[in-house]
Design a protein that fits this description.
By secondary structure, this protein is α/β, with parallel strands linked by helices. It folds into five domains: 103 residues, no CATH class; 177 residues, Rossmann fold (3-Layer(aba) Sandwich); 98 residues, Immunoglobulin-like (Sandwich); 232 residues, 3-Layer(aba) Sandwich (Rossmann fold); 68 residues, Sandwich (Immunoglobulin-like), CATH 2.60.40. The chain is built from 16 helices and 33 strands. The longest helix has 38 residues. The chain is elongated, with a radius of gyration of 42 Å. About 2% of the residues have low confidence.
Length: 721
């Protein structure tokens, strides 16, 4: 039993002693008088006193009950609250303002109940509870529902809303690709409660409380203190399941979107496991657009992320590759698609000043050998064995011009130190439009002439060579500086030549402080001098190789890393010539087209007509509304619905790691909000009900008071009149 009024009313129960006190005070005392006939009278009085005593006690009892009923009536007694047996949300007392924060982040796509539950997702369960809360709204009162997806204005529903309004509100709460912003959601609730006219206030937080969502619980201490000052009751329901296990595939990329047909390309596939078990197994499958399995393997992972190297060989054309993991508790992050364009060959132009040297004395010979060694082996159905993977043309550097560089993927300046203004402008425009330039000054190059000619292109200015002549006993090794580039890291592995084994005896030094502000060193020598430096120029860029490409200054030409270097260089060069196929959300989709009118098909199937514009003699289309993750298809013609160009907008998978909070962080969160986390709707309803009351007993107490007073008055008049 609960009492709604102040506990001061319990002091009124002391009035129950008043009838007994009055009886004791005014009770007649017996007085003995000596008399001869007293014996008969004494026997008569004893018989009457026994009959009168119980009547007096009955009247005193009725008076006591009347006083107790009066105290009960003013104390407003209630029976204990009981949770609804049908699982519905507890009906709010009149004048209650409820605010519901709902986690709509990707981690809520996990199954509710964990492994083997077979039920819906956590988000489905949260939306179902929101629907119950809306149905339980009571007039007068207010209900606000806010999805924690970054917005600050909640959906406000008045009590007794129609069912259609409830479903419309639920439909507007869509899944977010961003982590839940609990702090911002609580701030929105504080703003709503401060302007609320209702004194009874309740905040409900429905989330899985993953580590990615919550961050450090201490940062929520301020909002929780503010809610306590506003007399807000906080109830949190967590959908986290301790035994849930999740495999997630985060990325599948060869570090470029344009590949070479028939060439085995290393795809870096990043897979993560998040669960309580020390080790778990899954199955990785990579399929092409026709559903053919290109790679299958069983994986056993500890709780962490792991990057696999998967070599794949593809034929020429547009490809959509899909990597899939075995289904688990969070299936939405088990599938990943990426788009790639595979070209039959790469086009390179080598510009060299007149060099009459023959054989390996001429660096061009080494370059030719490298191109031949890097040639991929043809596979049946992929590429004719007679087709060359590289289209290489050797041109005198004096003949450089827009026509020479047109439609090339890369231009290599071999031992060139002088370039006129027209040639320099042609090279600059080539880089701006996506081309890659490799500057490789050799032993015959003059640093002063080189710096003057290539000032607008080169990533750094050159000085004289480090040594006057080659000393076989004095050398340095190549060191990868851009360690986060997986494509370059391949060159350090023994399977790809290990560039660190090559010996560099001589090289051009760079002037101190001459490195361009936007340039970066890709490889340096073990002594600290730059070996390979890259500078972005427009959509393309310029590479500076300070040790020459011949055999004069290093032994790299006889190491396996030499053809690998050109293979990687030319693949990246081809990728820069094309617009990106795999985009971040919001990144514009740009493509060269053959006709001025074309159609784009969005992931949901919506068709959007596009009109091309002419830029530098080419027809280009641009589409900016890449807000939805998935595959976009650019059809070449509005009428012909042939297979088009594929683009993929990446999905934000920060929520794939949905491991629950550890015990210390849970205790910290519970301490700040002043209550325990609930793990089921039943627990939430029970915690909420501890502040609610059941049916009122005030009417019963008033009736009891009236009955006791009437009975006392009637009996006293009859017995003692």
């Amino acid at each position: 039993m609960l009492f709604a009024s102040s506990s001061a009313w319990f002091t009124a129960f002391a009035l129950c002693a008043v009838p007994a006190v009055i009886y004791l005070i005014f009770r007649r005392k017996r007085k003995d008088v000596a008399w001869g006939a007293v014996y008969i009278l004494r026997r008569l009085l004893e018989a009457k006193s026994r009959t009168s005593a119980w009547k007096q006690y009955a009247v005193i009892a009725l008076r006591t009950v009347a006083f107790a009923a009066l105290a009960f009536a003013f104390a407003r007694p209630h029976l204990l609250w009981k949770a609804p047996s049908d699982g519905s949300f507890p009906i709010a007392p009149p004048g209650t303002h409820r605010f519901v924060l709902v986690d709509v982040s990707s981690s809520m796509d996990a199954r509710a109940g964990g492994a083997g539950s077979g039920g819906g997702t956590r988000m489905d369960a949260a939306f179902s509870l929101c629907r119950k809360a809306m149905e339980a709204a009571r007039f007068p009162g207010r209900l606000d529902v806010l999805p924690m997806d970054g917005r600050d204005k909640p959906f406000t529903l008045e009590p007794q809303v129609k069912a259609a309004s409830i479903e419309e509100t639920i439909a507007r709460m869509q899944r977010s690709r961003l982590p839940a912003d609990l702090e911002k959601g609580m701030q929105a609730a504080i703003v709503a409660f401060r302007s609320s006219p209702f004194e009874r206030r309740e905040l409900f937080i429905l989330s899985d409380f993953s580590a990615a969502d919550l961050g450090e619980p201490e940062r929520l201490s301020g909002p929780f203190r503010t809610l306590q000052r506003l007399n807000v009751r906080v109830c949190c329901l967590t959908y986290a399941t301790p035994d849930a296990a999740n495999f997630a595939i985060h990325e599948m990329t060869p570090q470029m979107d344009v590949l070479l047909a028939g060439q085995a390309t290393i795809f870096h596939v990043t897979v993560g496991y998040y669960g309580a078990a020390q080790e778990a197994d899954t199955w990785l499958t990579i399929r092409d657009g026709r559903g053919n399995a290109l790679f299958e393997d069983a994986l056993s992972l500890a709780p962490s992320t792991r990057t696999l190297e998967v070599p794949l060989t593809l034929p020429a054309g547009d490809h959509l590759l899909t990597a899939t993991l075995k289904e688990d508790d969070h299936p939405s992050d088990n599938v990943l698609s990426r788009s790639f364009r595979v070209v039959p060959d790469l086009r390179v132009v080598v510009l060299q000043e007149t060099d009459l040297s023959t054989g390996f004395e001429n660096p061009r010979e080494w370059l030719t050998q490298a191109m031949t060694s890097a040639a991929p082996t043809a596979e049946a159905g992929h590429q004719p064995a007679s087709r060359k993977p590289w289209t290489v043309d050797y041109v005198n550097s004096a003949q450089i011009g827009p026509d020479i560089l047109s439609d090339r993927d890369a231009a290599i300046f071999l031992d060139v130190d002088t370039l006129d203004s027209d040639g320099l402008e042609a090279a600059r425009l080539f880089a701006v439009r996506g081309g890659t330039i490799l500057l490789a000054p050799g032993p015959t190059a003059d640093p002063a002439k080189f710096n003057e000619s290539f000032a607008s292109l080169s990533p750094a200015r050159l000085r004289s060579p480090q040594a006057g002549e080659v000393n076989p006993d004095t050398y340095q090794s190549a060191v990868l500086e851009k360690a986060d580039d997986l494509l370059l890291r391949e060159m350090e592995s023994p399977g790809h030549g290990n560039i660190g084994n090559a010996r560099f005896y001589r090289w051009f030094e760079t002037e101190q402080g001459s490195l361009a502000s936007d340039a970066e060193v890709l490889f340096s020598l073990s002594g600290g001098s730059p070996l390979c430096v890259f500078r972005p120029i427009g959509r393309g860029g310029c590479l500076l190789w300070t040790a020459g490409l011949g055999m004069d200054w290093h032994s790299m030409v006889v190491h396996p890393s030499y053809p690998v270097f050109f293979s990687r260089l030319l693949n990246v060069a081809a990728a820069r010539r094309q617009f990106a196929r795999n985009l971040q959300p919001g990144q514009p989709l740009i493509s060269e087209v053959a006709k001025p009118e074309c159609t784009l098909v969005r992931p949901g199937g919506e068709k959007v007509p596009l009109t091309a514009v002419t830029v530098s003699g080419k027809l280009l289309v641009r589409y900016d509304r890449t807000d939805s993750a998935g595959t976009y298809t650019l059809l070449p013609d509005r009428e012909e619905q042939a297979r088009g160009t594929l683009y993929t907008v990446r999905e934000d998978r920060r929520e794939s790691d949905y491991r629950t909070l550890d015990d210390d962080r849970v205790r910290s969160l519970e301490r700040q909000m002043g209550s325990a986390l609930c793990h089921s709707e039943k627990q939430l309803f029970a915690a909420l009900g501890r502040g609610y009351t059941g049916p009122s007993l005030m009417t019963h107490a008033a009736v009891l008071l009236l009955v006791a007073l009437l009975a006392e008055a009637g009996l006293a008049r009859r017995w003692f009149a």
